[in-house]
Write a structure and sequence with these properties.
It contains four helices and three strands. The chain is an alpha+beta fold. It has one domain. It has a three-stranded antiparallel sheet with strand order 2-1-3, covered by helices on one side. The longest helix is centred in the C-terminal third of the chain and has 13 residues. The chain is globular and about 35 Å long. The protein starts with a helix and ends in a 6-residue tail after the last helix. The mean pLDDT is about 95.
Length: about 80
């Protein structure tokens, strides 16, 4: 099952490299600007832009500890019909 901490860590690592996409099965990958995901059977269920979400935090721990950020991510993922803890 997908976890909010895992999404925030991946967002943190994706800063400057592209957008983080979440697929229907809960898998995630970074898609660089101007590229398309390889052989995807469907469209991503959620697309996160890392810089607006985590770019303002000085450290990863600050991002993972932010209740508002955690809620925003959880709401977006659950809204797409994907389980997250």
């Amino acid at each position: 099952m997908l976890s909010t901490d895992e999404v925030i860590r991946k967002l943190w690592d994706a800063q400057g490299y592209g957008n983080l996409v979440v697929w229907g099965d809960g898998t995630m990958n970074v898609v660089t600007p101007g590229s398309e995901p390889e052989e995807a059977p469907d469209n991503p269920h959620v697309v996160f832009k890392p810089l607006p979400l985590v770019g303002g935090y000085p450290m990863l721990d600050h991002a993972t500890g932010d209740k508002a950020l955690r809620q925003r991510i959880t709401d977006a993922v659950r809204g797409a019909g994907i389980e997250i803890e």
